[in-house]
Each structure stands twice: as C-alpha cells, then as structure tokens.
Automatic annotation (TrEMBL):
GO terms for molecular function: lyase activity. The gene is nspC. It comes from Mesobacillus maritimus. It is an enzyme of class 4 (lyase). This is Carboxynorspermidine decarboxylase. The keyword Lyase applies.
Amino acid sequence: MKFEELPTPCYVVDEALVEKNLNILKGVMDRTGCKIVLAQKAFSMTTMYPLIAEYLTGTTASGLFEARLGYEEMGKENHVFSPAYREDEIDEIISICDHIIFNSFSQLEKFKQKALDAGRSVGLRINPECSTQVGHDIYDPCTTGSRFGVTKEHFRPDRLDGVDGLHFHTLCQQNSDDLETTLNAIEEKFGEWLPQMKWINFGGGHHITREDYDLSKLEACIKRMQDKYGLEVYLEPGEAVALDAGYLVTTVLDTIENGMEIAILDTSASCHMPDVLEMPYRPPLFGSGEVGEKPFMYRLGGQTCLTGDVIGDYSFDQPLKSGDRLVFGDMAIYSMVKNTTFNGMPLPAIAVKKTDGDCQVVRQFGYQDFKVRLA
C-alpha cells in the first residue's frame, strides 16, 4: 500500500534508512575489527532482524525475555546484562546467552560457576563514576546513587577469577568525545586489570549514525583498547541502528481553543511516544515549524485523560482540520518498546516502508491486546 493509505496511528520503519545506518556501523566494524551488537531495549522490531543480522554481530538483552527474542529471532551472538538475575530465570538465560554480564561481585559469586560450566563468557559491569551528561540524571548511570556497576571503592581484584571482560555503559545519545573522556576514567580506575581481560564492552548510548558523530575518534578509542591491552572490543548501540529511520503517522480528530489553538490527535505522547515526556523532547514533525515560524500555531495532544499528554507546540502554513494526517519523525527507537495501553488507547499499527517505496503493515492491534494485559 502507499504511505498515505496506512491506518493511523501507525509506526512506520523505513528499510532503506535502517540499512543506511547499518552500513555506517558495519564500516566501523570493518575498519577496526570491533564487534557491534543491537541493544534490543531501544529497537526490537523482529521484522527487521534478518536485515540487521546481515550487518551486526548479534544482540544484547536486559533480561530473559529480550534474551529469548535475540536468541530466537536473530540467532547470532547473544549478550545479556541485568542489575540482578532471578534464580528462577538464570538457568534459561545461561542456556541461550553467550556473554553473561554481572552487576556486582555478589551476583558474580552466586551464578558465575553455572555460567562457566556452560561454557559462557563471564563479564562484570564497572562504574567509572565519570558523568558526561548535563541535566539528565535519569539517564546517567554514573550519577550519585546509581545502581549500575561496581565502583573502584568496591572493586575486588581477588574475585576476578573466571571473569573474561569488563563492561561499562555511561553514555546517552552522545558523541565520541564523551567516550574518550570515559575511557580516561576507566584506565585511571581499572587500567591495571585490563591486561588480564579478553574483552571490553563499551555499552550503548553512542549516536554513531548521527550526522555530526566523530567516527574517527570512536575508531581511535577502539584501537586504543585493542592495541594497548589486546582486548576484543564490543559496542552495543540501540538508537544508532534505527536513528531517524522511523515515523509515527497520526490523524487530527478535532481542534479546540483554550487560550490557544489545540489539536487532538489519534496518538498519544504518554502511550505511544513516552520519551517525549520522559526525556523530555519535541519530536520532529514534517511540514511544521517552530513556534512563531509559520502563521498557524497549535498545541498537539492525545486522547488520554492525562492533562500533560502533550506532544508539543508546532506552527503550520495552513489551519489544521479534522482528518489531516501528520507525520512525526525519529519514531522507531524507544517507541514500540515502551508504549502502553493506558486509558485503553489502541496500540499503533506497525508497518515497513520497503526500499521501493511501498508500505506493508506487519502488525495491527485491537481490543484483545489491551484486555490480555489485565486480569
């Protein structure tokens, strides 16, 4: 079907744009010899996994269900990290994951032997206590009181037997200069133990496919760990795989006025694009402008009862009317994986825009998808 024929609301992932991102990531792998795995927490659209598998090394998970997804749907290297593993899940996790990364020495001691007996590679997450973000503590694993990783103060070199690698994840939508800063802190605090490791995992948060990303500095960081310590280097970006490669198509249901013009859409910031409220940020909207840029300004909001279910303020060349279709950009990442059915809001359909321009709806949702989550 044509793009304009898609039902709304609908997430649309552009196959050509995903492949463009994958080519950039594959280039980094080819030039450096590093391995890049998909962080499924940002993008878990299994329809795209065969394409992603042509380029990347595998997947990484945050728990059992994501680990199963990567194992069943991609079937390549399968990594997992969790702040703490459940005893009733660890056996299955070990059976399907190649790299098991632990968050503490207590978790390491509890489950390490099981992982080693199964022939798995065991890792430990470290916390370099090096914050490179400003004003986003909710996304900063190095913030005071963070539950992620072992700090230098609590590091126990005498308990590293059987540990193959160290893992850190400190970035969020950042460039490679922040990675370089973090590596300096890693070497300062944990450098003496790097030579006894087989690998190091740089985690995620690398905006590698962003237009202004410094690829040469990233590759220098990778080479630094390879050449200085003989380490195999892993990266696990999620956003970079589908950055700017998806849309959310929505329809205007009504327009009202309350001190300003307001448009009610058949989508929801709270339900369908939660990062708009959590980050927060104002998603790009095709054909619109900033406040005051174009003659007709509207506040765009959803159908839910949440007063704050507001996507943002946008200006337009013409007044909006019921039935108009709007297309938000950068809606592949942290959208499908985080959406909800709050207020009984239907989940958006999911479609793929093929390289020839045609669109295919691969999943639609209805009342049963809402009901099955309740009891």
